[in-house]
Design a protein that fits this description.
It contains nine helices and 20 strands. It is α/β, with parallel strands linked by helices. The longest helix is centred in the C-terminal third of the chain and has 20 residues.
């Protein structure tokens, strides 16, 4: 039986406020909008990301063994997450278990060990199958897990590759990943590859949670002088404009949640960026998703994409909110009709939104000058 739990908040002395997630697995029919982080491997990292507005975590260390000691270690991980109000996307490591003759039995041991833990959010079944494993090979695992835990969703991550769309029968949540910020200066990175991939996934009909870039490719460069087509010295983290583009364009697309890869790779190059620019952007975004909950159910204006604009509206008891995103790497004016849904009002910037010359008059939303990839978030005040 599915239970509904209230959200709780706790204050940690000197550390700010952490939001405790509701106990129990993620409910696809709920208002919750998961914001998650891959590869958070210890309590220190958990506490750090919890203060950023992240509510879900993952570790590659889990799910690797069904030995009693390893089960206990994984349980401790979930216990620590629960203390901080975090949920866990539990990695079942199916790609490894499938090589074992009793792999399905072992996976079900993991499922049964953790299915009732209050910190369990959902299962992570497979990472980038990409034709290396067929749907027919995955289906026995998916069906057995669904039978054992019918109320717990199962996620699969797909890379943007030839066969990415072919796994719809073995997932409840479709995750997408592509990481385009390398060494090119802003605004030249192909940010729209992320949103094009997510948009194609949304059109398939399953709930989509994009996995966005939260690292500097320098972490993987080793001793190379060049990597990913750039001198290693030029490799960089995404900046605030790029992060906000992915966040708010994704909301306009109707994604069901948003994850980031990865905490471990990010801090490999230092803690300054993730504690600074990234943390500030995540707190803003997390607050907005709660403000407009259910954030994944906006009124969308899909034809706006014909003009390389993302546009969406949330009419909630607390007010009406508009998001407009320049999906183009150039500075330009933006203008789009609101299809008779809104006629006029005063636009008040929300969060880190720049106070640009923006107007809503005669059913048309205009911005005099949008910067490359810029995201605008406004609360609409009636005149």
């Amino acid at each position: 039986m599915r239970h509904t739990f209230a959200l709780i908040a706790i204050t940690v002395l000197g550390a700010g406020t952490l939001s405790l997630a509701a106990d129990g697995p993620f409910d696809l029919d709920s208002d919750e909008f998961p914001i998650g982080m891959f590869s958070v491997d210890n309590p220190g990292g958990m506490a750090q990301v919890a203060k950023m507005g992240v509510g879900y975590i993952h570790t590659y260390a889990g799910g690797r063994s069904t030995d009693e000691a390893e089960i206990a270690r994984d349980c401790t991980y979930l216990d620590e997450a629960h203390k901080l109000g975090l949920k866990v996307m539990y990695n079942l490591h199916t790609q490894s278990w499938m090589k074992q003759p009793d792999g399905l039995t072992q996976v079900l041991k993991l499922v049964n060990a953790f299915k009732a833990h209050p910190a369990l959010g959902f299962w992570y079944l497979y990472d980038e199958p990409d034709g290396s494993v067929t749907v027919e090979q995955l289906k026995p695992y998916y069906e057995a897990i669904r039978q054992a835990t019918p109320g717990i969703p199962i996620a699969v991550c797909n890379a943007w590759s030839k066969h990415w769309y072919g796994y719809q029968d073995v997932l409840d949540i479709l995750m997408t990943d592509i990481y385009p910020v390398t060494g090119l200066p802003f605004p030249e990175a192909k940010l729209d590859h992320v949103t094009k991939f997510a948009g194609a996934a949304v059109r398939l009909g399953k709930p989509v949670m994009p996995i966005n870039q939260c690292f500097n490719w320098r972490a993987m460069a080793g001793q190379n002088e060049t990597f990913r087509g750039s001198p290693v010295a030029q490799l960089r983290y995404p900046n605030e404009a790029e992060l906000r583009y992915w966040c708010y364009a994704g909301l306009c697309q109707g994604v069901r949640g948003m994850f980031w890869w990865s905490y471990a790779r990010s801090v490999q190059c230092g803690y300054g960026w993730i504690n600074g620019e990234f943390a500030a952007t995540m707190r803003e975004f997390a607050e907005f998703t709660k403000l407009v909950a259910p954030a994944h159910q906006p009124v969308t204006f899909e034809r706006a994409q014909d003009d390389d604009i993302f546009l969406a509206m949330w009419q909630r008891p607390g007010g009406t909110y508009l998001v407009m995103v320049n999906a183009w790497p150039l500075e330009r004016p933006l203008s789009r009709g609101l299809e008779d849904k809104l006629q006029a009002g005063t636009l008040t910037p929300v969060g880190h939104t720049r106070a640009a010359d923006a107007k809503l008059e005669g059913g048309r939303l205009t911005v005099d000058k949008a910067l490359p990839w810029e995201a605008f978030v406004w609360k609409l005040e009636a005149r």
